[in-house]
Give the backbone structure.
Amino acid sequence: MNMEQILFLRSSSHLAEELEKCNSLKEVFGFVKECVEKTLRENRAGLDIGLAEMGNKDDGLLSAFYPVGSNIIMLNTTPLRRIMETEPALFKPYLFSVLLHEYLHSLGYVNEAETRQLSFKICKHLFGDEHPATRISFDMKKFFPYLLYPGGHPGNKQVQVIEVDDLDYIG
């Protein structure tokens, strides 16, 4: 089945507004799961979110990862903090794009290139070509000035694992 055949949801101008109404990581993640359920007719329960200060290199970063077969999505807090310092309006679109990508991995989409392409197609379908989540999912490197600390930023080894129900306000 090709990716065009698995997108069922009709686009809605209200979806961008729904994302903007999200006030917590929990709400954004819930919205991601709802969108995937409506587009791909797939879902998964029992995932936790881990937060870790993974830092960034001068020319790149690891935004998040999903260890295959696990029940956790690990988010790098470095770009989350940096984006709030530089361009807060991009925070929710960035978070949506990253969580969507990792949630797709948790559903069994393990090929990185195919998952990137599917993430982009879902965002484009949901939000249109010009929405920041679509643009981020297409080419995150264009957003590096808002996500990376110049010269790099060290991470640390402390990891905080939290249940999705306990995620705090995101601003």
In short: The helical segments are 14-21, 25-40, 77-86, 91-106, 112-127, 132-138, 144-147. The chain has a mean pLDDT of 84.
